[in-house]
Amino acid sequence: MPISISAYNQASLDKTGVRDVAGIVAQTPGLVFQTTSRATNIAIRGISSTAGAATTGIYIDDTPIQIRSLGYGGGNAYPIIFDLDRVEVLRGPQGTLFGAGSEGGTVRFITPKPDMTRQSGYLRSELAFTESGAPSYEAGAALGGPLVADKIAYRASGYYRRNGGYVDRRNFDTKATVSHNDNWDRSYAGRLALAFAPSETLTITPSIFYQNTFSHGSSFYWDSLSDLDAHRYINDQPGAEPSHDEFYLPALNIDYDMGPMRLVANASYFDRSTRNTVDYTTLNQSLFTGISLPSIPGQHAESNYSNTQKNYTGELRLQSNDADARLRWVVGGFWSRNRQTAQQQVADTYFPTYILSTFGAPYTAIFGQSLVDGHLIYDQVTRSVDSQYAIFGEATYRIVEGLSFTAGLRYSHTKFEISALAQGPVVGPKTIDSGVQKENPVTPKFGLNYQFNRNNLVYVTVSKGFRPGGYNPAVGLPCNGNLVSLGLTDRPPLYNSDSVWSYEVGSKNKAFGGKVQLAASAYQVDWNSIQQNVFLNSCGFQFTGNLGSVRSRGFDLDVQVNVTPNLLVSAAVGYTNATFQKTVFGGPSATSAVASAGDAVVAPPWTVALHGEYTRPVLDGHEGYLRLDYNFKSHQAAMTPGLNPANGIADPTIDNVPATHLLSLRTGLRLNGIDVSAFVNNLLDDNAWIARQRDNTRSTLYRSMSNRPRTWGMTASYRF
Q: Which of 89, 131, 617, 631 would disulfide-bridge 26, Cβ 3.0–4.6 Å?
């Protein structure tokens, strides 16, 4: 296909031991997984932003599930990696077929369809041990097949996994361990799909997907207390930091084969609820007093976040059925209505005490407001509705044998409605804001490809991506000085859409009878009016503005070589150089830049995934194998102090993200559908930090996160 895409089926993901979306990102060129204490996001080809609407589309089958960054919390949900037909990663903007939210690319998790003709099943279990941590284990089963031959079929699956923790949480005052291996998590999921075929040409498939994940504690540790080489990960946050994420997704798919055409209809409802707690003890005190560590015995403050999504989606498309036709086409319509509610409540009953001891005056005299409900210093709730209507079409015409031209266009009408309430001492009197934003984006795509023969293809594409604008919640009263220095009297209530234009050239080739396979592409992406965060360093708040432009250039390369009948090696290499084109300021009177010309967007320039598998007959002809997997992310150069979305906070002392090297080894035996293997993940025990943050620029306390320490175990699976 004339597109930059990586696709993985369940069997290939099992070979590399992938258990979550981070594992997919690690082996896909051009992708970066961003992690903060409140959210996770995927960035593709340098299109990286934790502000506003998503830059990467996340799909389960035909349902978009990505989330808008609303208020100060929220991150994407990702389906568990079990019983998937395949995962597709489409690099570059997908605005024509996938619309807003696919500005940098799209990741699709595609589930198995019920099979009308044969029974099939998939079982998998695992037991693993992490150095100086708790055991991990999982069990999952999937079954499917016909209930009535050629008329009714089903696919059902269930899965459970518990990942053992390795970070110990202690009591800050006594230093006694409160919770060993505090950062354990568990997840379970289930899916049921039924397919009905009233005739040979019509199939109706209702389905439901349910997933529930829980994390007992944070994986961030205190740098000053931890000794990573000795596998001593220590967190002295006074309070627990649990998180819970649950969703269910009922969907209906109708597929009608009309001979030369195919009609496909999809309708779905995505209902998601997240709750997480972040300990704010050190943040509040350092922010308001300049003292980094708790000063009162038993001191504790916490921020409770909740976020709900209720997304209704419908799509109807008509497409040509003949893959060899001179003209291939698809046209359709799309509708969605996404309701989202985000709330943050910061409880701090010690606030009056440490303000009085620091400033010698009651907090009400300084802030002018009392605690909300006797314990909240900040209470904020934001409700939004994203509505979208779109029509789209794409056609590929074969001009002459081998040479084809593609053109596509999507016209959308988007409407964003917002209402927000904020109150508490740190924001002043209760404020209620509301706003409406409407836009009519047009996202075209053009492509030209030449198929020399069945083994060699070259292509050129030009495409546009888009994401809608949004709203900024109120910022705190201590932010006034920062706002004045920017030439502002308040944060801008609304921010506008941003967009990208992508230019790509690529090649896909097979040689030596298919023993060598190559897919390569080079690109330039121009990103304009970027939605980015402006951090107000003195008060811990932020707002989103349309700030400057970025040019991202790079390439990705996938190579697979059958060196011998028994040895297969592959490499996936990505390079991204995304830099700001002009110096950008957060306001008209700002003296320091949010980003300067030449500053890099936060992303490792190089990502490399190397794989090798050697097989040989053993035990009466059964297949034994030895597999090595290596993932590398390069060092990230220093960045401007004001722009640091990967770490979630503006900080001139957090830069120069180190390189990471993850090496895994797996050896096993495959016989009659059974695969039993032993493995070691992170064999080199790489403990370089992959995320780092501190509460604010007045704090001396740093917290970091590293990859899971060296882990070994056994996996058993069975397919039939």
A: 631
CA distance 357 to 77: 43
Per the CB < 8 A criterion, the answer to whether 445 and 463 are in contact is: yes
Is 485:590 a contact under the CB 8 Å cutoff? yes
Asked if 589 contacts 60 with a C-beta cutoff of 8 angstroms, the reply is no
At a CB cut-off of 8 Å and minimum separation 6, what does 136 contact?
A: 126, 127, 128, 129, 130, 161, 162, 163, 164, 711, 713
Q: 37 falls in which pLDDT band (50, 70, 90)?
A: low
How many residues does the structure list for the chain? 720
- Written as one letter, the residue type at 598 is G
> What mean pLDDT do residues 430-443 have?
88
Tokens representing residue 522 in the block: 């080079």
DSSP code at position 230: G
- Cα–Cα distance between 30 and 708 in angstroms, integer? 22
Any alpha helices (H) in 35-188, and if so which ranges? 95-98
593-639: pLDDT as tens digits = 777 788 777 678 999 999 999 999 998 889 999 999 999 999 876 54
Q: In this predicted model, what pLDDT tens digit does every residue of 158-197 receive, in sequence order?
A: 999 999 999 999 999 999 999 999 999 999 999 999 999 9
pLDDT reading at 647 higher than 60: no
Token pair of 504 as six digits: 């790509």
**Distances in whole angstroms, Cα of residue 338 to Cα of each of 42, 345, 418, 435:** 20, 23, 12, 16
Spatial contact of 406 and 396, defined as CB atoms under 8 Å apart: yes
Closest CA to 56 of 102, 7, 123: 102
**Helix or strand or coil: residue 81?**
coil
- B/e letters for 308-329, b = 16+ CB within 10 Å, e = fewer, are bbebebbbebbebeeeeeeebb
Query: Of 581, 601, 600, 584, whose CA–CA distance to 592 is shortest?
Result: 584
Report yes or no: 270 and 310 within 8 Å, Cβ to Cβ: yes
pTM: 0.92
